[in-house]
């Protein structure tokens, strides 16, 4: 406990706000004497600025498109637009037909056609 050097009354601890920080001071309520309290320094509360992580831009690819991207391509003429490249995949046909049917999809116009044998 500290006393005022001027009037000898008790000093009251008070928080003094400045632009930069909050400091603890001792104030005499009687004469208005102010004394900087060296101990018990109040650390200014710094608001933490949390930078939100920018969401990664995820390219939206349709399932069908994604599937097609993994498909191999073959040089075949598209009956619709005459393009010479098409995706190729095989579909196992059930039943009496033992062989699988090859399907093509034009890389240009997306026209899907099957192998004519
Ligand atoms: Zn005083
Ligand atoms: Zn085509």
Unique ligands: zinc ion
Regarding CATH, which class of the largest domain? Answer: Mainly Beta
CATH architecture group name of the largest domain? Single Sheet
Q: Kindly report the spatial arrangement of strands forming the biggest sheet.
A: 4-5-6-7
Query: What Rg, in angstroms, do the CA atoms define?
Result: 41 Å
Provide the residue-averaged pLDDT. 80
Number of structural units classed as domains: 2
The tally of helices reads: 1
What would your notes on this structure say?
- The strands form two sheets. The chain has a four-stranded antiparallel sheet with strand order 4-5-6-7, with no helix packed on it. The protein has a three-stranded antiparallel sheet with strand order 1-2-3, with no helix packed on it.
- Strand 2 (22-28) and strand 3 (34-36) form a beta hairpin.
- It folds into two domains: 1-44, N-terminal domain of TfIIb (Single Sheet); 63-114, N-terminal domain of TfIIb (Single Sheet), CATH 2.20.25.
- With 117 residues, it is mainly beta.
- It is built from one helix and seven strands, in the order βββαββββ.
- One zinc ion binds at residues 4, 6-7, 9, 28, 30-31, 33.
């Amino acid at each position: 406990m500290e006393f005022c050097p001027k009037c000898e009354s008790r000093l009251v601890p008070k928080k003094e706000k400045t632009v930069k920080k909050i400091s603890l001071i001792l104030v005499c309520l009687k004469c208005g004497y102010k004394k900087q309290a060296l101990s018990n320094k109040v650390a200014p509360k710094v608001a933490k600025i949390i930078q939100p992580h920018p969401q990664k831009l995820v390219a939206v690819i349709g399932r069908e498109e994604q599937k097609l991207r993994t498909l191999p391509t073959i040089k075949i003429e598209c009956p619709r637009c005459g393009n010479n490249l098409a995706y190729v995949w095989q579909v196992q046909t059930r039943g009496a037909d033992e062989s699988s049917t090859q399907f093509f999809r034009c890389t240009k116009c997306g026209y899907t056609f099957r192998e004519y044998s």
